[in-house]
Amino acid sequence: MDRPQLADFLRARRAALQPEDVGLPRGPRRRTAGLRREEVAALCGMSADYYGRLEQGRGPQPSEPMLAAIARGLHLTVAERDHLFRLAGHHAPERTSRTDHVAPAILRILDRLQDTPAQVITELGETLVQTPAAAALLGDQTRFQGFERSTVYRWFTDPSSRDVYPPEDHDERAVTFVAELRSAYARAGKGSRAARLVDDLSRRSEQFAALWARHDVDEKHVRTKRLQHPELGVLTLDCETLLDTDTGQRLLVFTTTPGSPDADKLALLTVLGPRRLTPAP
Question: Record's SMART domains (predicted)?
């Protein structure tokens, strides 16, 4: 681990980011060139003290998940992310057509949607980053590890994960999730993470195995979704999808008609704060 070079790199990338780049107000008294340390720490989901020690060249060696969070918080390109990993004494993540690294352009869009439920997901339904409003609507979906990161996996292994949809919609959602996974499996092929997820789910869930055997295929993504919130009830929202063709990642943005009852409910999300998810028993 090259602490001096890592510290210099972090300071340089922080100075290159402006508040407007990450959806923050500039304010009349800003003297710092670029972002403040505490602002970058918040974007990375870590304490300001921990991030500050890294910039001062006296912090511990960051873990790979911590480095991935820093790469997203600083809006690094893939080349810059790889450089960050090497400076911290890790091998750079493998470069494949499918990656967990979110492109800076997608992050810039997300930063301007902080009051709107929006999130970036992989082909397998793994949530990589969310706006605060999305966490309030759906819960913090970035906290999971392993196969549990995948929405379809949680759907068939953790019944409590279905609480975000009204019960009468559960059968339809199950069919949709399996069809979307089949499309991802067809693109990735045997030996892929998608294939391993299918094998594991087939052993764990009879319902999944039965639906998988039907060979339903659907490339369409539902534009209108009904979501259930424990305090706000059912919200009917439009879901717009922006596809990054380089990575297969999707930016989902949930909106509704201004002035409607659902719009009033959306306005309350940030007041209520992150939705708590019930863990599997």
Answer: HTH_XRE
Closest CA to 6 of 77, 64, 89, 72: 89
* Secondary structure class of 150 (helix, strand, coil): strand
Confirm whether 211 is domain-assigned: yes
Q: With beta carbons less than 8 A apart as the criterion, state whether 37 and 48 touch.
A: yes
Question: By C-alpha distance, which of 247, 16, 19, 233 is closest to 114?
Answer: 19
**66-124 tens-digit pLDDT:** 888 888 888 888 788 888 888 888 887 765 545 678 888 888 888 888 889 999 999 89
Phi/psi of residue 158, nearest 5 degrees: -135, 95
Domain that holds residue 248: 113-272
Instruction: Write the CATH number for 31.
Output: 1.10.260.40
**Within a domain: 121:** yes
Residue 100 lies in a domain: no
Whether the CB-CB separation of 45 and 72 falls below 8 Å is answered with no
Distance (Å, rounded) from C-alpha 141 to C-alpha 125? 10
- For residue 154, give the nearest of 127, 182, 193, 190 by alpha carbon: 127
